[in-house]
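Data availability (excerpt). The following record was deposited with the supplementary files.
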Amino acid sequence: MTVPREAPRFPAAPEGNVTKRVRLVRTLLPPLIVLAVVLYELLVSQIGERRTEQWAHVAFYGLVGPLVTFFTIMWLEEGFVAREKAERELRHLYGELRASHNQLDTVQSLIRTLAEAADLEEVMDVAAQGVMRATGATHACLRLAGGLERAARGNTLLEAPSADLYPLLMPVTIGGERVGELALHFEQAPPGDRVRLAGALAAEVGTAVEAARRRAQDLITLYEVDQSIRAERNMRRLLERVTETMASLSSAQARAVYLVDEDGVLRHVWAQDVNGQTRRGGRVPGFVKRAAVTGTPLEGGEREAATVFEGTRCVLGVPMHTEERLIGVIALGREEGQGFEGTRIPLLALMASQATLAVRNARAYLYSEELAIGEERNRIAREIHDGVAQSLAFCALKLDVVERQIGKDPARAVAEVQLARTILREQIREVRRSIFALRPIDLERFGLLETVRRYVKDFGEQNNVRTHLDIRGEVSVSPSDEAVLFRILQESLNNVAKHARAREVTVRISGGDQVTLEVGDDGVGFDPALISDRVSSAGGLGLMQMRERIETRGGHYEIRSAPGHGTHVAARLPQA
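Predicted structure:
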């Protein structure tokens, strides 16, 4: 908080020679005059000659008295002149102090406003206006590398500086490197103190420009980290990316990650030393445990750094935690320097918070995958039990009938064999459909569009159906949205293979404000109101579940069908 300073007041004139002289004259002159007159009269009374006494009186009272008065007045006048001179000097000094006070207020206000500026453009606007006011220039122009420029005009009618004005050009530097210039124009040649003030303000502007650029770079870094976290579901690669960015910001050559497991034990997960060698597992150093306990970034010296990374001289431990519990610790090590730059530690802590959220999401994703695998296993078991197993058992019964009837009623035996063959072929197709739907798809490797091309082509060949794929516009969605769209495609095509008895299927993907996936067939169709929550046999999702997956991501799911008129499925998600 800045305490406002009181404006300087006009100082009282000190008690000078004039006052002393007036007091001296007022105190001593009357007694001296009386004493002089008395002495004079005593001396004159001794003359005895009247004419001489008269001339003596004339000389004394007509000449000596005025001379004494004259010299007394001159003596007093010298004091008055000195006092007036002192008062003029005091007034001049007061004017300089008041101007300096106003100038200092302006400079302080400029520095404070520069520090509070949100971005580079605001810094340039504030700098041009503030420097112009602080220096009393008529025009000010701040130019930075890259073509950035801001100008300000004072109380003048001139839109631009004229040739009659006095120019002053001050360089704007950052770390000794010139990044721009501050051009000022004055009505009169600026004095030396004004030039020095302009140079100091140019240095402050350079500092503010550097701070604004650093803040912008920090925001870009945070955005890039956030995007990489959103795009990555593999925890190991995710942590490698985050720690790589943190190491780059802090000039660290070594990095390590320690995570708390499901039993609450802090364990070493991954590390990279100063030589670029990676390792997993191992003991947890005491320094890392202390950083976990403190809950705030902790710096360590050379001795502690050696326990975490060999060949480092300083170490920084940044805890990852939620409001409820500790998630882990990220450790960074440097080969040189006495410590980490304090101004970067808050940014590193913020990035660790982003990594905390990413770790929790990755763990939730892994847990959901485990649940999905378990559910998929249960579904496959149900399908084998309810579908393939019962069909095979039925075929076994038919073959038993054939065995008994082949000698008595060959025609019936042949019919039973044909029925069993038909059932077996249908179950073979069903098993192939299930295997096709369950086979792993590498979306991360091929991307959404190439994966769709491969899948649609294989689907047509597998199910003896004509397929058409139409891709229009630019398609850009997040990796998780890609997975959802592809899952909808899988479910829709699986339903076509299992229920539609279609001869032709059309798949269309189109970009725009939204990404739209459409799957249409010329099959038998159905009434959506009657089977909206039916679960498919191969994919495990019904129509209701597909709708919920799309709508929870801000999209829209629509299905149109009628008996004998085929089916059309449309899923829309916002572009990334």
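Summary of structural features: The chain has a mean pLDDT of 79.
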